[in-house]
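Duplicate of earlier report; 33 kDa chaperonin input re-posted below.
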Amino acid sequence: MSDYIVRATAADNQIRAFAATTKELVERARSVHNTSPVATAALGRLLTAGSMMGAMMKGEKDILTLQIKCSGPIGGLTVTADSKAKVKGYVNNPEVMLPPTSKGKLDVGGALDLGILSVIKDMGLKEPYVGQTQLVSGEIAEDLTYYFASSEQVPSSVALGVLMNKDNTVRQAGGFLIQLMPFAEERVIAGLEKKIAEIHSITELLDKEMSPEAILDYILGDFGLEIMDTVETSFYCNCTKKRVEKAIVSIGRKDIQEMIDDNEPIEVNCHFCNTSYHFSVEELKEILKRSH
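Output:
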């Protein structure tokens, strides 16, 4: 199993925790979208968060969408995940380039700048749940930590990291998500806060090639860590030509007729996985017939 998430509890269920290694899925996203290093880091962090938050959902068909609309040069990001931790995503401007920060790090905060983070959970109810918060730093992990505290009233610590090789491929990617349950005792809260404050950065832990289990043991080992299970996670897009056909039908007969009148085949591109689907004029005529 290459990329996976570990689910765990600690302190007699007062703490719940997730940790993930996502190097391969982030590298897949990078190669699919041909993202710049800073775009890879931003998208990789959001994909990692999406995979862990997807794994938190209960229903078979539940879908989570994380969307960032922002004023920075990256333009915005969208990630969706299902409850099996299959994720996909894209950035609006994959070629964004920025100089590194004063600490020599990829400037994800600068790429995003100000904006809004939306968390949309489609759990098969009439209306999806939508939680929105302002971006507090644009670094994504801190923004999600703030989201959990303000929108879901769950004190959380989120850490997300992506490390790049010199040739701009992904060296390491992963993160953790640790949450306190409402009945957590003061001493547990204080102990956890102290431990998390000692962690310099998630990328340091990833750089040491620590597994998700080792990361959780490092943070929660003193709290009676119990590993519940592991879940595979991967970059996966469920687009097919059939689904794209449905999208063409939805644009309406008039527009389809115009495409036919142009007498040129069309190409439809999937945002999430960059796959292109070609439809000949004959296929468009068939779609028009079926769209009564």
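The first helix runs from residue 23 to 33.

Merging into the original ticket.
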